[in-house]
Amino acid sequence: MNDDARWLAAAASLAARARPLSRPNPAVGAIVVRDGKVVARGWTRPGGRPHAEAVALAAAGEAARGATLYVTLEPCAHRSERGPACADLVAASGLARVVVGCGDPDPRTAGSGIARIRAAGIALDLLASPQAEASLSGYLTQKRLGRPEVTLKLAMSLDGCIALANGESQWITGEAARAHVHAMRARADAILVGGATLRGDAPRLDVRLPGLQARAPERWVLTRGEAPTGWRALPSPEAIAGMAGVQYLFVEGGADAAAAFLRAGLVDRLLLYRAPILIGGGRPALADFGLAALARAHGQWRRDAQHPLGSDTLEVYTRIPCSPE
């Protein structure tokens, strides 16, 4: 990894601090570097303002002159009542160079931010940074597809069960895996379960990690009826396009809700928590989602990571985009 890629990856790591508090704005990270050393850094603040570049440049002050700014997303070009356009701030900063990890698909910026900075005489490189794009995945999905990024979480036994036949499910996985799930909840804007799960388990779906309790996401239930107090109703998986301000949706089940999202082709990531136990005859993790031929099951998912969590194992899968015909 060269220096530019390394600094962009570091900026992407900073961006994680903004998620999900930056909503409805994207979680962006920025680092000001001079002579191989960090001068200042920033990430999008709660509520979406100030932006990461504004935070980093304000912290750098005069030290920004002649330095390089690494930022995960193209600086915005549109002015707002809530703050100036970051492209204007960058243009007036005295920076020698800017390195951007991902262009902004928002039509209000979409290349205009880059053009404005270059017009100010600042060298700018737009690099394809996998880490920057991954840190912006929910925002990019929202802008490109008009819906949130959907992560489906399943906690199961080795033989694919999420509960005993009588419904007992606490606990399939151990403490380390459950703590990891809570950390993933804290990164989501909204969390969803099916109506049967809500009625049968009465899940809290909160975040029970020290210091992160306030980051519990909005609670949604997949139902055509009314949602109980403290919940919001989603009539169908396709209706996620109307979830205003939601970039990251975390689907926790149960089997029917998971199948509904898979049937609709709306699952972008899978988090599979596997416990080293066998149940046999228990409740399956998934209901039928319409697979008509075994051949169509292949080539749909790419495993990106595998991690031990105590005695359990987490596998992370990303949907493989369909090739154009």
TrEMBL record:
Cofactor binding note from Swiss-Prot or TrEMBL: Binds 1 zinc ion.
Source species, domain of life: Bacteria
Positions of transmembrane segments: none
Pathway noted in the entry: Cofactor biosynthesis; riboflavin biosynthesis; 5-amino-6-(D-ribitylamino)uracil from GTP: step 2/4; Cofactor biosynthesis; riboflavin biosynthesis; 5-amino-6-(D-ribitylamino)uracil from GTP: step 3/4
CMP/dCMP-type deaminase domain mapped to chain residues: 2-125
Its EC number(s): 3.5.4.26, 1.1.1.193
InterPro entries: CMP_dCMP_dom, Cytidine_deaminase-like, DHFR-like_dom_sf, Eubact_RibD, RibDG_C, Riboflavin_Biosynth_HTPR
UniProt entry keywords in alphabetical sequence: Hydrolase, Metal-binding, Multifunctional enzyme, NADP, Oxidoreductase, Riboflavin biosynthesis, Zinc
Catalytic activity: 2,5-diamino-6-hydroxy-4-(5-phosphoribosylamino)-pyrimidine + H2O + H(+) = 5-amino-6-(5-phospho-D-ribosylamino)uracil + NH4(+); 5-amino-6-(5-phospho-D-ribitylamino)uracil + NADP(+) = 5-amino-6-(5-phospho-D-ribosylamino)uracil + NADPH + H(+)
Gene3D superfamilies for the chain: Cytidine Deaminase, domain 2 (3.40.140.10), Dihydrofolate Reductase, subunit A (3.40.430.10)
GO MF annotations in UniProt: 5-amino-6-(5-phosphoribosylamino)uracil reductase activity; diaminohydroxyphosphoribosylaminopyrimidine deaminase activity
Keyword Isomerase: no
Family annotation (Pfam families): dCMP_cyt_deam_1 (PF00383), RibD_C (PF01872)
Cofactor: Zn(2+)
NCBIfam families: eubact_ribD
Protein name in UniProt: Riboflavin biosynthesis protein RibD
Species assigned in the record: Novosphingobium album (ex Liu et al. 2023)
